[in-house]
Amino acid sequence: MKSDIYLIASLPQWAIFLGIISFFWGLIEKKAKYCKIGSILFATTGIIAGISLLIGDFGTITTPTETGAILKVLCLSAILLGLVSVIHLNIQWKKSKNNTWLTIFTILLALTNFFMYYNVLHGIFEK
User: Record's superkingdom (predicted)?
Assistant: First the structure.
């Protein structure tokens, strides 16, 4: 059923969206607290995606098998975002000033993940 897929794909999309907003707010206001909240949201999304990839069986969803494979790829990309954000969090807590490239990479990876979820949701529900 399509509503099963919508729930699986939309909750991480909202968490990533809130993380991006928090991240940008922290960069604009120069408050590391908001950047850390964004990184924690990304890491939490990655952890939940990892758990759902290990426990969940996407093949039982009553959709074509391509959708199950797409959801697995989305989980893997969210896990990668979570790992990068954990590394970014560690560097932030060490108060390192040399994390500019990692910050840019984390934001680009988060935006990529957000639009991947967006495209999957619109591709599934417009058919």
Answer: Bacteria
